[in-house]
Amino acid sequence: MYCSHCGQSQDPLFNYCQYDGTALQPKKEGLTFKQRESQYCSACGEKNNTSANYCAHCAQSLLTPTKTAALLETANSRMKQHVQSDSVRNLQKSMLQPHRLLTAAITTVASFIVVILLALVLHTTIDSSKELSPTDALFSPQVAIGNVKSSTSTEQESYKGITDWVMGLHSVSSTLDASKTRIRDSGSEDVQYAYNTSFSGGFFVLLLLPILLFTVAGYVYARFRSSDSLLERFTMSLAIGFLYSVIIGITSFIAGFSFDKEIKLDSSSTLQEITLDYSFWSAFYHAFLLATLFSFLGMLLQYGSFRTTKHLVSRMKYGMAFHQAFATLWRGTLISMLFVFIMITIQWIDSSSSKDSYFTLLLTVGSQVGIFLWSILNGSNLHFDFIEKGGETTTFSIFGGFSEDKPPLFMSGVKKMLEQEVHIYWLAYGGILLSLALFIYAGYKMYQHNRQVLLQQIGVFACTYAVLASLFISWMSFSAEMSSKETSSVAFFGFSFWSTLFITLIVSALLTYAGSFIAKLRLKS
């Protein structure tokens, strides 16, 4: 054989030219280059043109690598960057298309109009009633200001308006300021009391209305844009969420009420003031997550077969993990609610309550307790705290039952109610099998899909499930912080976001891994 660089005859057993060190018989598979650096054929040793692909004398292939920078490096990294840049460019282009944005804007405005109509219905049916039932009072701020109202006027005034119900449908945090000042004829003022109360929390039965609304809105949008890809649908759900959150955020500025009334006395007058305001960031944040998440689920529903996240399995890398996270949360919450509904129904049959109060109690308390029950079954701690001049807390955990720290009398009453009326021990320890079964089933299905235990899949599942469960349970936990010149107190009933996130993340990951391991043993046997 001959050297392809100098043309000298070489020993066939050599790998390099003994005259100039050029590699003999280089690998040619998968190489592409513009021109050859060598001039001599490695088979016959004859000189050839550098632009020729084959030897003019023996027809041997002349494709040999050159020593240029472009030929020494691979194009894989540049190809990945090119694909990523194209994806980002296509994403930006799809979001900025006028017809897409117009459809998203119309969907958002139509959804807000429906929310206004729902708020109007709630306002006319609850706030306009002359007498509030105990269950209806849970939704009305008239109870919170009842003492001031009764002492200043005998008229039935409705302080809560339509925009306040819009805030209530999204569990927006609020601040209530109440003060009473005595003004003497001499001009001196005596502040008898001044309270500032921050309140957050919400009922699932109210939150369910925008959830269903945006699921339908996403489905309707996808019907008009049925050719959109999964990525385009997700970007449009982000656009809908952003537009809707801006609208709700602006509404929070005009929501609320301001009430003041002065009562003339013999030598003085009394001025009583009440103001209710809503948090802009709470309104923006809650509206964005609700609109984005559930409009996207509605768009997935448009694919057909009455499925939502199941369509992600064949359309993205971690689709099975996302699907099982959503499905586990949905199944667990729904079954827990059914347990509570059955318990309430049994107790209602034994009582003499009216039919109307039964359905109201079933929807409001039953759904709320059902969600709390599922969070307990995930290992989270249910807190009932009232802190004033020291720590006074009561906590229930499925691992340790009740734990108390200086419990006041009313907390002992709450504990008694949870034990005797709600049967919290029976629900918690009886329902723990449900939690084990659903998480193990999720891990089992993921192993069946991947045919191996993938820690990445389990990690995505655990993170997705923990974030979703912690977000919604924290929205439906009630907290109130009241402060005045003399004292301050904090009341909380529900679950902490961070502790729920941490505990749920660990529990879901371990049980899902156990399910995958069981599937592995079963399929191998």
Automatic annotation (TrEMBL):
Record protein name field: Uncharacterized protein
Superkingdom, taxonomy of origin: Bacteria
The transmembrane residues are 101-122, 203-222, 234-259, 279-304, 325-346, 424-442, 454-478, 490-515
| Entry keywords, A to Z | Membrane, Transmembrane, Transmembrane helix
Specify the species: Fictibacillus macauensis ZFHKF-1
